[in-house]
Amino acid sequence: MSLEKRRVMGDSRTDSGEKGLKRNVDESPFRKRTLSLQSGFKFLLLFCILLFIVSFTLSDTCLSLWDSSKLNFHKLLNQTSQLYLLHPILRVRPKLILETTTVSTTTAPTTAPPGIQYHLAYPRNYHFIMDNPEVCKYQTPFLVLMVPVEPNNIAARDAIRQTWGKEKEVQGQVVLTLFMLGSSGGANVEQQEKLKQENEKHHDLIQSDFRDTYRNLTIKSMVIMDWLATHCPTAAFGMKIDSDMFLNIDNLVIMLLEPSVPKLNYLTGHLMWNRPVIRSEDSRWYVPEELYPEPKYPTYALGMGYVFSNDLPEKFVEASKSIKYFNIEDAYIGVCMKKMGLKPSSPPKPSQFRTYNFKYDRCTFSKVITYILGSPQQLINFWTDLKRPEPPC
Ligand SMILES: *[C@@H]1O[C@H](CO)[C@@H](O)[C@H](O)[C@H]1NC(C)=O
Ligand SMILES: *[C@@H]1O[C@H](CO)[C@@H](O)[C@H](O)[C@H]1NC(C)=O
């Protein structure tokens, strides 16, 4: 048995007793020197191990290992979550999170002024691959409805085209409805061809080359802003409205025509105040502190449908150069407004911007502006009923 082993055993037996102390005193000078040499060596070894651990932790390999195990855990937690089934890029999430896009001359029309970082949400990092650049050339819309929608969600687009999207003139004002799509990835040639045909028929699709995913919705909203700023700057108002919404377009235009509604720096909808940022990683609305460190969001209008004066889109595009990307698109717009020294306004009648509705009531639907619906068929049914000639109430 080695000296070392015996010493440990002896110590453990007489750990806290007087005996151990006495034994130490009894030890020979030779033994003491070996021990001090040994502990010196042990210290060195420990130091080396520590150094190794520290450098390993800081290395990329460890970060991505740690991250992919976290992702796998999430996959288990939410098998239905599309997010993690999508793209290998998610396996290098730390890079994605910390990524800011430095603009080179090939990726953007402008060069970055020194000191400015163009973040992921800066829409001029992306390019339109399908467009209707003429739609605002020969008319000046009062209101442009911009509907973010997934490329394959034809049902939602068709329902909107048959309902509120088909209204070209409301209360004597020109209204335009357009759909904003991201890209579903290079491999989908057939789908892309179908989209092209759909656009040739309806002339209402705009597609950008960012990947169309749930986590990228902020990019989509900012690309909407970019399109309005560059392709339709003469419109008076814009609206971002989700594809699963009921929209009483008459009431909306009536509201926007009210003299009390400002023509500049105006954004309204269903307002959210003092909303805490969700830090639970299982949530669909999870935002890590690296992206948005503050505990609460500034006031923002719920993403289901917010209306704004059309001077704002250009200002949002500018603001997004210096605001880090995070995946809650409506709160991101709120952060842009705060940065610009602005705040969303309450609508003249706040109760008109409603969220969920599970049962249809003709009288109520005739008074609101928005409702979230369950399906495209529901939209068609409710709309058809609402448009019957009899008075609704
Ligand atoms: C799983 O993820 C999807 C997409 O993010 C989300 O809609 C759904 O609510 C999640 N389910 C659970 C049980 O968290
Ligand atoms: C968001 O879009 C960018 C640009 O197309 C893409 O590189 C990235 O993978 C997308 N992120 C997610 C989470 O889908």
TrEMBL record:
GO biological process terms, semicolon-separated: lipid metabolic process; protein O-linked glycosylation
Gene3D superfamilies: 3.90.550.50
Subcellular location: Golgi apparatus membrane
Pathway: Protein modification; protein glycosylation
Alphabetic keyword roster: Glycoprotein, Glycosyltransferase, Golgi apparatus, Lipid metabolism, Membrane, Signal-anchor, Transferase, Transmembrane, Transmembrane helix
Membrane topology: Single-pass type II membrane protein
Region (Disordered): 1-23
GO molecular function, one term: N-acetyl-beta-D-glucosaminide beta-(1,3)-galactosyltransferase activity
Top enzyme class: transferase
Main localization (coarse): Golgi
Domain of life: Eukaryota
Pfam families associated with the record: Galactosyl_T (PF01762)
Family: Belongs to the glycosyltransferase 31 family.
Protein name per its UniProtKB record: Hexosyltransferase
